TrEMBL record:
Residues 2-349 form the FAD dependent oxidoreductase domain. Gene3D superfamilies: D-Amino Acid Oxidase, subunit A, domain 2, FAD/NAD(P)-binding domain. This is N-methyl-L-tryptophan oxidase. Its EC number is 1.5.3.2. The keyword Flavoprotein applies. GO terms for molecular function: N-methyl-L-amino-acid oxidase activity.
């Protein structure tokens, strides 16, 4: 049984059901939906990753699984636009990740500011900046990915309860009872993948996850130089904040978000809409003005979403400390979507085979005790 069928839960539901395991998914909404962390059309997928070779290996396996999901669903889910990472080389270095990513065979290029401007004249860069360009990186259509997991999971025999809120989880020897606002269900194992709502399951699950309100905006570019067929996804820092974004896909506008900052959110609280705070638009616009000035046109659309931060911003994927037939997958800290395909596989491995299939010790919940 899966409590929380968003990016991670729906992926796990797909993996379990296609292995022939009886699977019940329960979600408080009707996924994909706009109340959690997976909506807003697109998510970046990159393979050259900070945090060590483990992440790169996971990203590469995730990529393989995304391709398989595209084949199985017949949906276009991944767009290899490339991703351009801009950084101030006087303050920041990518050297560590270059080394282990190259050893794992990930293609990337290191570029000077002048080389970036020659290839993408729509980028403005101070001379001290350099870039790392990943040609095989790109974007995932996140809502469509969750919809594809759902469709295939149901086709494989999984059951999904939508608009059903898990209120309590109660293990008893070899089974686990899951109480919801619509009734009670029992299973041999339960995955808890509750995104921004983990706190509602305390004291049974107590994880140091802080949910944060995040905004993204779509801006009208003044030329077609930012279209997805000629402009990559991007990340950059300007010394005061870190930003990421997407080329204009199908005329939707250049999408940009700020990775750091944001206001705390607690389950049950109203989530203020985009524009409720002056910085919602102002932060994004000033970042575009500095690096992608031709993209800082009219605000076409804004959206609000949630990050779930752990204290070290690494994930939690582990067994419940007191109940090994309850698995926990949370705290994806604003960078988890690209991994959701492989997180589903890890969780399904643990339930079906009793092992994760990859060394994921770094994601243990015990590191916070
Ligand atoms: C603005 C923004 C931009 C991002 N950009 C990127 C990016 O570029 N690349 C990237 O890799 N990642 C990115 N992320 C992060 C990524 O989207 C998240 O890490 C990922 O979606 C987390 O998945 P999840 O399954 O934990 O949460 P969710 O997808 O939110 O799923 C949790 C589910 O649990 C359900 N639920 C919760 N509590 C209960 C309950 N008690 N009962 C029943 N159901 C419950 C919810 O309804 C929800 O469907 C971004 C996130 C945001 C917000």
């Amino acid at each position: 049984m899966i409590a929380g069928a968003g990016a991670m839960g729906m992926s796990a539901g797909y993996e379990l059901s296609r292995r022939g395991l009886k699977t019940l998914l329960i979600d408080a909404f009707d996924p994909p939906h706009a109340h959690g962390s997976h909506h807003g059309d697109t998510r970046l997928i990159r393979h050259v990753y900070s945090g060590g070779a483990d992440y790169v290996k996971l990203a590469l396996r995730a990529d393989e699984l995304w391709r398989e999901l595209e084949d199985a669903s017949g949906e276009k889910l991944l767009e290899r636009t490339g991703v351009l990472n801009l950084f101030d080389s006087s303050a920041y270095s990518y050297e560590d990740r270059f080394q282990y990513s190259a050893e794992l065979g990930v293609p990337f290029e290191e570029l000077s500011a002048a080389q970036v401007q020659e290839r993408w004249p729509a980028v403005r860069l101070p001379d001290s900046y350099r870039a790392m360009y990943e040609p095989e990186a790109g974007l995932l259509y996140s809502d469509k990915c969750v919809a594809a997991f759902r469709k295939l999971a149901l086709q494989a025999g999984a059951k999904l309860l939508t608009d059903t809120f898990v209120t309590r989880i109660e293990p008893a020897s070899s089974i686990v009872a899951v109480h919801t606002d619509k009734g009670e269900y029992v299973a041999g194992s339960v995955i808890v993948s509750a995104g921004a709502w983990f706190r509602t399951l305390e004291p049974f699950v107590r994880l140091p996850i802080r949910a944060v309100r995040k905004v993204v905006g779509w801006f009208e570019p003044e030329t077609n130089a930012y279209d997805a067929d000629r402009f990559p996804g991007f990340t950059f820092g300007d010394g005061t904040g870190g930003y990421y974004g997407f080329p204009s896909v199908g005329g939707a506008g250049v999408k940009i978000g700020r990775h750091d900052g944001g206001r705390d959110w607690k389950p049950g609280e109203e989530l203020a809409p985009f524009g409720a705070y002056p910085e919602d638009e102002a932060d994004l616009r000033q970042a575009l003005n500095a690096f992608l000035p031709g993209a800082a046109g009219k605000l076409l659309r804004g959206s609000v979403c949630k990050y779930e931060h752990t204290p070290d911003e690494h994930f939690i994927i582990d067994k419940h400390p007191g109940h090994p037939n309850v698995l926990l997958a949370g705290g994806f800290s604003g960078h988890g979507f690209k991994f959701s395909s492989v997180v589903g596989e890890l969780l399904a491995n643990q339930i079906e085979l009793g092992r994760w299939g990859q060394d994921i010790g770094r994601f243990s919940a015990a590191r916070f005790s």
